[in-house]
Amino acid sequence: xxxxxxxxxxxxxxxESVRGGKxxxxxxxxxxxxxVIVVVGFIAYRLVLIELxxxxx
Length: 57
Fold this sequence. Notes:
Order of helices and strands: HH
Shape: elongated
Number of domains: 1
Largest sheet: none
Number of strands: 0
Distance between the termini: 43 Å
Number of helices: 2
């Protein structure tokens, strides 16, 4: 499953949820995986940024 497929699945589940449908297990897993990817990416970005700033001084 590519990142595009994951985003399409997440978008479909989000719109289904807004319309009153219930999210199944795959929808929740996709949401959790996407959240973890975002958090890990943000932490890695901050660590690289801090490393670059400390090396400049």
